[in-house]
Amino acid sequence: MPAPALTVETFGCRLNLAESEAMGRLARAAGLADAVVIHSCAVTAEAERQARQAVRRARRERPHSPIIVTGCAAALRPEAFAALPGVVRVLGNGDKLLPAAWRELAAALQQQVPPTAPLPTPATTRGFVAIQRGCDHRCTFCIIPYARGPSRSEPADSVVDAVHRLAQANCREAVLTGVDLTAWGSDLPGRPRLGQLVRKILAEVPALPRLRLSSLDPAEIDDDLWRAIAEETRLMPHLHLSVQAGDDLVLKQMRRRHSRADVLAVAARARALRPGIALGADLIAGFPTETDAQFERTLDLVETAGLDFLHVFSYSPRIGTPAARLPSRPSAVVKERATRLRSLGAERLLRRLNTLTGHTAAVLMERGGAGHTECFARVRPVNPAPPGEIVTLRLAPGGDTHLLGEAA
Predict the structure, then answer these.
(1) In total, how many domains does the chain have?
(2) Residue 137 class from Cβ within 10 Å (0-12 exposed, 13-18 middle, 19+ buried)?
């Protein structure tokens, strides 16, 4: 039987990762020494299924540990998760980051942290900072605004303080996360923009070597952020765009705020301001109205815009969204389109890796003996350095998904 421990299993986005780290700290501070926290995602039916599967696995492997479920899937279907064997509490998205909620839960479970229990070790490689939650938009395919509510921004000083604490803990890279990252500041006094926050972080936390951004809306990249991309070398040359489709009519039916031309303009401007910058994208395969020709335009956009890091979702109808009322494409069609997109993504990634071969790069070492360059290419050094070190390596071919690195 596994030894008692507090574990947090995370599904979904980088915002969930940031929140999981915070929940782990809150739970330990409240005195939870033996529990399994499942942090669920609702972006697809598959993500929800995986969370239920994780609950069942936790029950099987740790039958005496209480199971707590939170996150978007749990917020949308609390009764269904509460009914699963072993689940003692479904914690809402509005409560999961409240210290009082964890203290109440710990007291109810009558758990005590042994006096000799070690404190959690701060991350020394990459830390996630949640700067924004919720979303004010209603894309027709997306259930997340219903689970997380409207957009809410962390004040700039609070964000800077969080990044400063990471740097003090010897974290080498901070990643700013959110449901709608480029909406940051729209609900704050003076309506500051994301670019202002980025510049403030870099100015006020000089000890942080690297700052990275998670997914950006192509329609909302502000001028200050463009200037930061051009001028701030500690802002990593890697943009991940929430694109979803490459055909204008499909984008309108998704109720996205950008066009195909907007994505191409963002890609061109990014490369003009920061040569060598890497671009990635979220893409949905098999949206209900998508014809074969429209899907081909998405494939073409990947090539034309030069998108090298693809995150592909198979369309999944989510009850309560407008798109769920549309006739779905046959599952075989959705699967085939997702496979083609992922195959193209693998080809694009390999081409990107090949362009880096023979060059030197600064690689942030991580656990497991590998690391990432500034443009997020994965590198496995011949002679690994300790996690947290940034080493200069000469890059060589290593495989379909990574490069090898030798001392420069």
Answers:
(1) 3
(2) middle
Provide the edge-to-edge strand list for the sheet that holds 6-10: 6-10, 35-40, 67-71, 87-91
- Domain assignment present for residue 67? The answer is yes
The CATH number covering residue 160 comes to 3.80.30.20
pLDDT tens digits for range 336-393: 999 999 999 999 999 999 999 999 999 999 988 899 999 999 999 999 899 999 999 9
Within a domain: residue 300? yes
Q: Could you tell me if residue 117 is inside a domain?
A: no
Q: What is the pTM of this model?
A: 0.82
Q: Is 116 within a domain? A: no
CA dist 32 → 51, 74, 117 (Å): 21, 20, 11
Domain that holds residue 204: 126-352
SS (H, E, C) 351-396: HHHHHHCCCEEEEEECCCCCEECCCCCEEEECCCCCCCCEEEEEEE
In sequence order, the 6+-apart residues with CB closer than 8 A to the CB of 134 are: 145, 148, 149, 150, 151, 152, 179, 180
Indicate whether 242 and 298 sit together in one domain: yes
Both 342 and 293 in one domain: the answer is yes
Q: Residue 325 CB: number of other CB atoms within 10 A?
A: 11
The order of strands in the sheet holding 278-285 is 238-244, 278-285, 309-314
Q: Could you tell me which residues come within 8 angstroms of residue 239 by beta carbon, excluding any fewer than 6 positions away?
A: 213, 216, 229, 266, 270, 277, 278, 279, 280
Ramachandran area for residue 3 (φ above 0: left; ψ -120 to 50: alpha; else beta): beta
* Residues 177 and 290 placed together within one structural domain of the fold: yes
